[in-house]
């Protein structure tokens, strides 16, 4: 499921992003944030977090460092 949700992001990064000048106001970039959010929180919550992040990406937002919040359910380290 994660691969299916990540596929459009990889498509964007490979074919669309190179055609536009770098303009992301955030670190990490929105596509990096989306991939990490999906990996950490799963496809549903990760997509929601990525959507909220993309909605902040406009000229009236100052941008800056905006990291993916940690999962409330850490994976066991056994």
Automatic annotation (TrEMBL):
<protein>
    <recommendedName>
        <fullName>Putative membrane protein insertion efficiency factor</fullName>
    </recommendedName>
</protein>
<keyword id="KW-0472">Membrane</keyword>
<comment type="similarity">
    <text>Belongs to the UPF0161 family.</text>
</comment>
<dbReference type="GO" id="GO:0005886">
    <property type="term" value="C:plasma membrane"/>
</dbReference>
<dbReference type="InterPro" id="IPR002696">
    <property type="entry name" value="Membr_insert_effic_factor_YidD"/>
</dbReference>
<comment type="function">
    <text>Could be involved in insertion of integral membrane proteins into the membrane.</text>
</comment>
<dbReference type="Pfam" id="PF01809">
    <property type="entry name" value="YidD"/>
</dbReference>
<keyword id="KW-1003">Cell membrane</keyword>
């Amino acid at each position: 499921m994660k691969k299916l949700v990540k596929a459009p992001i990889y498509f964007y990064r490979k074919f669309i992003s190179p055609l536009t000048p770098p303009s992301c106001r955030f670190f990490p970039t929105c596509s990096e944030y989306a991939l990490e959010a999906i990996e950490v929180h799963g496809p549903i919550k990760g997509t929601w977090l990525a959507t909220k992040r993309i909605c902040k990406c406009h000229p009236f937002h100052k941008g800056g460092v905006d990291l993916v919040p940690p999962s409330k359910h850490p994976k066991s380290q056994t």
